[in-house]
Model the fold of this input.
Amino acid sequence: MEDARSYLEITRPATEALFKLLNEYGWQKMRAFVEITNVKTKADLDNFKKAFTSVDIAREVISGSILQIAYFGIKQHGQAANLSQGAMRFEAEMNRLLRESPKPRQKKPFVLPRAFCVGRGIGDLPIGMMIYAGRNQYNHSEADRLTIVNEVVFNYMQQLWPNPKNGKSFNIYDKSPFHCWSIIWALGWVANDDGTGYSAFVRDMHEIMQIEA
Done:
C-alpha cells in the first residue's frame, strides 16, 4: 500500500532519530551504573543517582514517542485480519473471568479492538495490542486507572515477564509514571547489529501494514 509506505517514509527521519537517541541513553544508563558503583562519597552517590534516574525518564519519553508513531501507523494503515487463536483464547478467558466475578468491572463482553489485533504474536496477544496499551498508558499516565483493555494487556505482560531483564516492570500499579521502555523491550525494538532497534521496528510495521520489502 503506497499510503502506508509513504507514512513510514515521512516519519522515518523522526523515527530513526528517536531510535538513535534511545540507544545513546542505553549506553548512558550503563555508564551511570558503573559510576554509581565507583563513588566514594555520599554527595557523589546522590548526584549519580539523580543522573541514573534522569536517564530513565528520558528513555521512557523517547520510547513513548516511538509507540505513538507506531500507533498512528496502525490506526491509519494497519491491515486487520481474523483474530488469531491466541487472541480468541485471550478474549474467551477474560469473558470467563468477568462472568465468574461477583463484582465485574464491566458487564458488557470483553472485546479486543480489532484494528490493533495485528502483527506477530507474543504469547496469546498480537503485538498491535502491546503497542496500543503502551501508547495509551503513555498518553494517560496521570489517570487514576487505565481502561480495562489496557490494564489487562499490562497484567498479561506482567505474567509473561514478572522480572524482565531490562530492569523495568510491566506493573502499572507501581510508582513509575511510564512503562514505554518495557514495551519497546518486549517488542524486541532494541539495539541490534545496526546499532538501534529501527530495523526491527520497520520489519514489524511492514508486516502489520502488509508492505512488501
User: Anything to note?
Assistant: Residues 2-209 form one domain. Residues 4 and 78 are 8 Å apart (CA to CA). The mean pLDDT is 85. The radius of gyration is 19 Å.
